[in-house]
From TrEMBL:
It comes from Seonamhaeicola sediminis. Signal peptide: none annotated. Keywords: Membrane, Transmembrane, Transmembrane helix. This is DUF1761 domain-containing protein. The chain crosses the membrane at residues 6-25, 52-72, 109-130, 137-156. It holds the Pfam family DUF1761.
């Protein structure tokens, strides 16, 4: 548990981009999002899409790294068991007993959806209110993050 599962982090980050392609597709919420975000095809044409997707991927990696300790509770035990001289024997005993407890896709999705509702929604909602955006805008964007964070947490927690 001392190290992060970088393969799971990268796959979770990619899943955020894949979910974005699905969620913001015109046949799903893309058309509605463009309307409430005051976005047009013309505005989108001038964008540097390579830069946008590279930065979106970097942000998704950072988010995945932040989700990991929320969904894998053993990481908290590791931080508690560290002493000035290194990992304490109590940690080894704990891990021998509970190393794989609550390490499921369902558990990761549950905690990540909660994080989406209690972290992403308030942040996006507050920004949207000050930007004078509609409730529909808030629901489309925060809905994406709640679902995406659920998927990311499932990948991170369930991948052992």
């Amino acid at each position: 548990m001392e190290s992060m599962n970088f393969a799971a982090i990268l796959v979770a980050a990619v899943s955020a981009l894949v979910m974005g392609f699905i969620w913001y597709n015109p046949k799903v919420f893309g058309t509605a999002w463009m309307k409430v975000a005051d976005m047009s095809e013309e505005k989108m044409k001038g964008a540097n899409m390579a830069k946008i997707f590279i930065m979106a991927f970097i942000f998704a990696v950072l988010l995945a790294m932040s989700i990991m300790p929320m969904v894998i509770h053993q990481m908290g035990a590791f931080s508690l068991a560290q002493g000035e001289l290194g990992v304490q024997p109590s940690y080894e005993a704990f891990m021998a007993e509970y190393a794989n407890e609550f390490r499921t896709f369902k558990h990761g999705a549950f905690h990540s959806v909660l994080a989406g509702v209690f972290i992403a929604l308030p942040i996006l909602g507050t920004n949207a209110l000050f930007e004078r955006k509609s409730a529909k805008y808030i629901l489309i964007n925060s809905g994406y993050w709640v679902v995406t964070m659920g998927l990311m947490g499932a990948i991170i927690c369930g991948w052992q």
